[in-house]
Amino acid sequence: MNKQFSEINTTRLDVKNLKPINDEVTVYQDKKKKGFLIEVSNQGLVFFYEYKFNKKIRTVSLGSYPSVPLSKALQKWEVASKKVLDGKDIWLYEDQSVVKNPASLQPANTSEELTRILDQIEIRKFWMGLDSINEISAITRLGLKLILLTGCSKDELFNATWDDINFEYRVWIATNSNKDERELDLSTLAIETFLEIQDFEHHTAYSNNKIKKALMVSQNKVLNLSSKSLDRAIDEEGCKKLTIKEFNLEDLQASYRFLHKEHGDSEKVGNYISELVQLKKS
Question: What is the pLDDT of residues 170-226, one digit of tens each?
Fold first, then answer.
């Protein structure tokens, strides 16, 4: 997708007046505020901070308008840029917490400390690219999309059975390998994705006795895949095919959490992704 670039002065700027140029994604930049970017598309407006670290260009989200006003985005940019000048690679911090919370300079002691957030363009490339790569199975594509749509872990997804999902109440009781349970609200798009998996498996089993037998043995599992299939789909080669810098399953989870904080609930996240990838509504 083409991008337009345009210079602006953010002093006394009314961001409500910013529009995409020729209906293309437009990136506005203020040269006096190095790295502060405003990306405007027909889906909305997002603030970003772009910087270079060890000769690599990094981009972190500062929030979406109107949830984050311009003044708040500029405060975040100022905090972030100071950290970078101090030698901090803030891109490494989960959910850009170093940007949101200036007092928190140390990454959390978790396995997710290297997660990153996919931006608008990357989400669009991820979603639409999966559908165009023939080497990725339909179930693998849908499984990857569910992580972005629900924030579930790989563990929870592979443990999921159809009995865990209540489509009427739009809830999934997700369970990890430690038997810890949590309730995940499901957006319309997430439900449609689950139903697409169910429909695909039933139709495939109807014409393939081996698959039918495997489904019976699987004890009603949602995903009947190798445990490494999702990781392989977005390995280094997979990311090249998607034309996205390297990311992993934890990054998809972190991206959902970020979107959930920005938009408020799972349904709004689903609607945002639908609009972003231009899914037609029935």
Answer: 999 999 888 888 899 999 999 999 999 988 865 554 444 554 455 444 558 898 888
Neighbouring-strand partners of residue 174: 182
Q: How, if at all, do strands 36-41 and 25-29 pair?
A: antiparallel
Pair 153, 168: CB distance under 8 Å: no
CA distances for 196 relative to 80, 141, 206, 217, angstroms: 41, 11, 15, 21
Sign of the torsion angle spanned by Cα atoms 147, 152, 154, 158: negative
Please give the span between the terminal C-alpha atoms of the chain, in angstroms, as a whole number: 25
Q: Please tell me whether residues 84 and 149 are part of one structural domain.
A: no
Q: What is the mean pLDDT of the chain?
A: 81
Task: Report the half-sphere exposure of 193 (CA within 13 A, side-chain side).
Answer: 25
**What pTM, to 2 d.p., does this model score?**
0.58
Does a structural domain hold residue 115? no
The domain in which residue 48 lies consists of 3-100
Q: Take residue 232 and report the two structure tokens written for it.
A: 């392989």
Shared-domain flag, residues 94 and 149: no
- Positive or negative CA dihedral for 233, 174, 275, 101? negative
Opening angle at CA 29, ends 28 and 32, nearest 5: 155
Reduced to 3 states (helix: H, G, I; strand: E, B; else coil), residue 36 is strand
Token duo for residue 90: 């803030």
DSSP E strands in 135-260: the ranges are 165-166, 171-175, 181-185
Q: Find the length of the chain.
A: 282
